[in-house]
Amino acid sequence: MQTDLSAALDIGGTKIAGALVDAQGRLVVRAARPTPADQDGATVMRAVAEVVRELAAAPEWARVAAVGIGSAGPVDAAAGTVSPVNIPGWRDFPLVAGVRALAGELPVTLVGDGVAMTAAEHWQGAARGHDNALCMVVSTGVGGGLVLDGRLHPGPSGNAGHIGHISVDLDGDPCPCGARGCVERIASGPNIARRALANGWRPGPDGDASAAAVAAAARAGDPVALSSFERAGQALAAGIAATATLVEIDIAVIGGGVAGAGDVLFDPLRTALRDYATLSFVSGLTVVPAQMGTDAGVVGAAAAAAQRSRLDAFTPAP
């Protein structure tokens, strides 16, 4: 029997998605359950088990060579544990051991969700053909991952490239991570909205005070809303430029809900990047929107598992 599929799990605070993914990045079989994030760890694991068992019941499971997990973090790939901020019942939870037992002792690879998104964008998306890339998720939080020398670089713990907690404002607001002035504290959706409200922006009659509503106001010309997105773009540009200077990436890919703001975010980001990425070896750095959408988590988890298992079929095409 040919073993040309990877099983993949994408675990977040809202949904646990699973899929069997083929060598072209197609989702052959899908399964999903809501994440019981307010329940204890065993209850959350039961939801994971339901997804894995549904996938394993498909005839195509016999073709699975490896399992990949992309999880909200922090994760510890070396220990096989996860401690997602948005799943309080999981603290140092032995997820890899639990999934391996469910998956018939197949090899299991764990990475953070930002690293999984990076793997997907490098394999099939906007970073395809680039040997050195930073991919980012800008949403409720800010995460990311790195591709270096043509390969996903998750780091020893599975968290490498977590740009959201680079400090870009040394005297800035305290971040929940314990540092100050982190990219996430400035550029995440909730913080874009928080800053706009603090500076006098007010929601419309529907009361929507989300970053999406701030983006709509910015598109309509509201100066406070525009200013909040400009500040977010500046923070992202500073973090991207610092990363590029350190490891010589040539492209940054940005996905997540905040990226849906489009030019409201990307225009000030690219303008600010010209001020920060000034050295000759980073001045050609480009920033583009992500392409993989909501399937990025499972596609990237499959790619990460395949890379670790050295499946040549999953090598990104030029």
From TrEMBL:
Transmembrane segments: none annotated. Pfam families: ROK (PF00480). PANTHER family: N-ACETYLMANNOSAMINE KINASE (PTHR18964:SF169), ROK (REPRESSOR, ORF, KINASE) FAMILY (PTHR18964). Belongs to the ROK (NagC/XylR) family. This is ROK family transcriptional regulator. It comes from Streptomyces noursei.
